[in-house]
Design a protein that fits this description.
Blueprint: H1 2-32, H2 39-59, H3 65-92, H4 101-122, E1 127-128, E2 136-139, E3 144-147, H5 148-170, H6 172-182, H7 184-189, H8 194-220, E4 222-223, H9 227-242, H10 247-267, H11 273-287
Antiparallel strand pairs: 1-4, 2-3
Helix pairs in contact: 1-5, 1-8, 1-9, 1-10, 2-3, 2-4, 2-8, 2-9, 3-8, 5-6, 5-8, 6-8, 9-10, 10-11
């Protein structure tokens, strides 16, 4: 039971990271019907910005951990928000009325460009970070330990999900996003600035990816220019598994994939964890093509 609980906690923290990245995929798809395949690289850039910010603060003599973490988080979110806005302006907006294959190829090209851009600037070697938040919370007489970073990841993810739910359901921006999701042309005729709404959607998704990147940096203590590719693929898988276009579905899909990886690695070995993840995805889509929480699109004629 202790080992089961330990893997459950590990899976929840990993799933929270996948879920944060998956929300960016599902928000963009829900509004413009396209997949932002450069989103994984935005998450990678967020991790690098957090690391560079921490090293810069250390060189300036700022070593108080709460302040350093706050500055790391804010700087990572701001920088990735700018990158997200730029990706939308360069890779998507000019091709919005083109056939869907064109923006797909553009997004893949942007992903490769960002990956190599970071490799040139930061080098191909992995970048380590010493533990910033050491210590564990022990449960069941020390049989189960939860690091403070993993606990913070779960708490922050829950808070962000609540905040985003309130934003989508209770604010004018959320109403504009839902209007654009239903019919962009009609929303524009009713006074909604569609370009602004889509740009802000990319910005918000990028900011969430930055939070995930910083959490990965704090948990694992090492990053490289290639972490965005695999994490992006798994987060996209999480969005599809939960139901592409559904925010709760994206988070649920991320948690499911995180739990699958944690339990499979813990009981069966880590060599086949990715095979298990994608096998379960295929089985779910065979019996429920819209995902766990997705709804079929009904086209009125």
């Amino acid at each position: 039971m202790e080992y089961f609980l330990q893997q459950l906690i590990n899976g929840l923290s990993l799933g929270a990271i996948y879920g944060l990245i998956a929300i960016g995929y599902t928000m963009v798809y829900g509004i413009i019907g396209m997949i932002n395949f450069a989103h994984g690289e935005i998450y990678m850039i967020g991790a690098f910005v957090a690391l560079i910010t921490f090293l810069t603060l250390g060189s300036l003599g700022i070593t108080w951990v709460p302040l350093a973490l706050l500055v790391m988080l804010v700087s990572a979110m701001l920088f990735t928000a700018v990158y997200g806005w730029t990706v939308e302006r360069i890779a998507y907006r000019p091709l919005r009325s083109s056939p869907r294959l064109a923006p797909l190829i553009s997004a893949i090209g942007m992903s490769i460009f960002l990956q190599n851009y970071v490799q040139i600037l930061q080098g191909a070697r992995s970048k380590p970070l010493q533990p910033i938040l050491p210590g564990n919370l022990t449960l069941m007489d020390g049989a189960v330990s939860v690091s403070y970073v993993r606990l913070a990841t779960i708490v922050i993810t829950i808070a962000l999900m609540y905040g985003f739910t309130q934003l989508i359901t209770r604010t004018s921006l959320g109403r504009a996003q839902r209007a654009c999701e239903q019919d962009k042309k009609m929303a524009g005729l009713l006074g909604v600035n569609v370009d602004r709404v889509i740009s802000l959607t990319f910005v918000m998704g990028a900011a969430l990816a930055a939070v995930a990147g910083m959490m990965v940096l704090l948990i694992y203590g090492v990053i490289d220019f290639y972490i965005g590719f695999l994490a992006g693929v798994k987060a996209f898988t999480a969005a599809v598994l939960g139901g592409i276009g559904s925010l709760p579905g994206a988070m649920l899909g991320g948690v499911v994939i995180g739990l699958i990886e944690a339990f499979w690695s813990g009981y069966m070995g880590s060599e086949w964890k990715d095979v298990a993840t994608f096998t379960i995805l295929v089985l779910v889509l065979i019996f429920r093509p819209t995902g766990l929480l997705g709804r079929p699109e009904i086209e009125k004629v």
